Task: structure prediction
Amino acid sequence: QVQLVESGGGWVQPGESQRLSCAVSGPTVRMTTMAWFRQAPGTKREFVAAVIWGGGSPRYADSVKGRFLITRDYAQNTVTLQMNKLKSEDTAVYYCAASSQYAGDLERQYDYWGQGTQVTVSS
Result:
């Protein structure tokens, strides 16, 4: 089965950058869309970014557009979220997600999820 494992979370000061990675194992040939979601305490899980595995322009939530970048590494079977100019509002558990279909910003469109990695932005 497909397994997703996030890494790279931790504490960072406002204005700094942090890079998250999602390692994909299993039948990756079935994956069409990779995405990142996040969830802060007491809030619903929200969409952050998504990219079609085979190529194409990525999609971003308005709250992170211009600051975050999602990329794919085919050789390493990973998807990365580069987070720049981090704000306290970015503090959340970040989840990697995958879909066998062309997916967008809805949770129900994704079939597989990682366990999440905590990102804390504070001074």
In short: The mean pLDDT is 94. The first strand starts at residue 3 and ends at 7. The radius of gyration is 13 Å.
